Task: inverse folding
């Protein structure tokens, strides 16, 4: 019997099932992982420039006469020009690298080490370093093709030398773009706005709209059947869960008439050997089996029979959290920036107030969405049990630590009161309790601050 193919995660399921509210994910492909490291794009440009610099002069040997509108100098002039380009480019490459390191150090100390990924993933920074290094290697590669000396029989690859000059112009343009990018990217307004926009994009894909039929259903209770066999898959690598292919897991569970229980939610850390997934309802040789990734014969037979590789591939673990499917990661970074700004060493409450404004933008969207169901049914059968992120947890994450470190601040607690007042008219009724809680906490902080001010004023009176 041929197993049915798994539909893509973005396929439209039947609205009668809970599958319709499962989050759409921006899948991390192998191609995107290849291009993610900082060095890949610069190294690619260097390799391409070296290959072009080696092959283009060989192609020019077919021309016996001088070409118009290209380099018209002799062999000595070509050598001088290429040598100047190579020397200048390697010097400016060092300058660009030094500027990048200074900006990274400044961002790490002033804001948070968690925002470094945004700087290192910038294509402008990668392209600038790549074009400068590529121009350097191209000039050196073409320089070896210049033959003879001026005034005697010689070979000057005119097109190749002209292309080197054009690469210099491109380097100047990218350098100006790099300077503009660096000066704007270290501004706190640019950082928090970028984090806020990325977080809202994830929230829009993760939390269902309030009018979704499955989102309005009450949470179901699920207890694993005592008589059903259990297959436990343990994690084989450590890191953060950045992506779960919910719909792929539901399809797999429906195909094998089982229930998949995901034990580690998105955004949480998992270590090797920790329980990751439990599968209930499979026809197993034992009542309870644990698969820890060992390549023994019995485990391999089970993996092949039930296609357990699909289950493992549906859960992606990486060393750092990302915006793929994790609404909390952006809020975590914003709160870190606010905490750093409120620390005694920096004492910049205005930056914390700017972060509060961005959190207001995020929370205004999230309080209009509903929570994902923990128990997911398909065709009337429970197929997936998981622990999704909750709207109330996101609100707690945004306000709890911020208010804790802002107790000595005058700006931030009052700004939080303003935000809570603006959230109430748009928030769904089920979030009134958590908003009331944080309003009470914030008012207590403001009242204590006012009392301290009055005491200080009384002590100053003669």
Result:
């Amino acid at each position: 019997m041929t197993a049915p193919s798994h539909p893509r995660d973005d396929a439209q399921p039947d609205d009668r099932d809970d599958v319709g509210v499962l989050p759409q994910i921006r899948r991390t492909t192998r191609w995107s992982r290849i291009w993610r490291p900082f060095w890949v794009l610069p190294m690619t440009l260097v390799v391409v420039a070296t290959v072009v610099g080696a092959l283009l002069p060989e192609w020019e040997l077919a021309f016996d006469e001088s070409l118009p509108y290209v380099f018209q100098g002799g062999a000595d002039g070509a050598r001088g020009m290429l040598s100047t380009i190579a020397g200048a480019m390697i010097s400016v490459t060092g300058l660009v690298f030094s500027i990048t390191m200074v900006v990274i150090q400044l961002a790490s100390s002033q804001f948070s080490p968690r925002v470094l990924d945004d700087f290192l993933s910038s294509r402008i920074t990668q392209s600038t370093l790549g074009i400068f290094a590529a121009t350097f290697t191209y000039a050196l590669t073409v320089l070896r093709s210049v033959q003879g000396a001026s005034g005697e029989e010689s070979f000057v690859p005119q097109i190749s030398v002209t292309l080197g000059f054009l690469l210099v112009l491109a380097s100047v343009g990218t350098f100006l773009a790099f300077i503009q990018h660096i000066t704007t990217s270290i501004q706190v307004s640019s950082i928090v706005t970028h984090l806020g926009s990325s977080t809202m994009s994830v929230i829009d894909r993760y939390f269902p709209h309030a009018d979704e039929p499955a989102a309005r259903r009450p949470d179901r209770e699920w207890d694993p059947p005592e008589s059903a066999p259990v297959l436990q898959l343990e994690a084989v690598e450590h890191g953060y869960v950045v992506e779960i292919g919910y719909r792929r897991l539901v399809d797999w569970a429906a195909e094998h008439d089982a229930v998949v229980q995901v034990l580690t939610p998105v955004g949480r850390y998992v270590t090797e050997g920790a329980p990751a997934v439990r599968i209930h309802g499979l026809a197993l040789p034992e009542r309870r089996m644990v698969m820890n990734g060992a390549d023994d014969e019995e485990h391999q037979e089970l993996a092949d029979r039930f296609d357990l590789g699909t289950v493992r591939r549906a859960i992606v673990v990486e060393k750092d959290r990302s915006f793929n499917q994790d609404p909390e990661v952006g809020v975590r970074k914003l709160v870190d920036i606010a905490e750093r700004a409120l620390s005694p060493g920096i004492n910049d409450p205005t930056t914390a107030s700017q972060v509060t404004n961005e959190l207001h933008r995020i929370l205004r969207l999230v309080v209009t969405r509903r929570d994902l169901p923990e128990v997911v049914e398909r065709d009337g059968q429970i197929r997936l049990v998981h622990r999704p992120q909750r709207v109330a947890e996101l609100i707690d994450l945004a306000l709890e630590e911020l208010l804790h470190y802002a107790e000595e601040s005058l700006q931030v607690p009052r700004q939080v009161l303003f935000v809570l007042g603006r959230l109430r008219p748009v928030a769904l009724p089920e979030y009134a309790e958590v908003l009331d809680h944080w309003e009470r906490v914030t008012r207590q902080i403001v009242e204590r601050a006012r009392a301290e001010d009055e005491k200080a004023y009384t002590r100053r009176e003669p």
Observations:
- The beta strands are 230-234, 239-244, 259-262, 269-270, 275-280, 288-291, 315-318, 375-378, 381-385.
- Residues 56 and 335 are 53 Å apart (CA to CA).
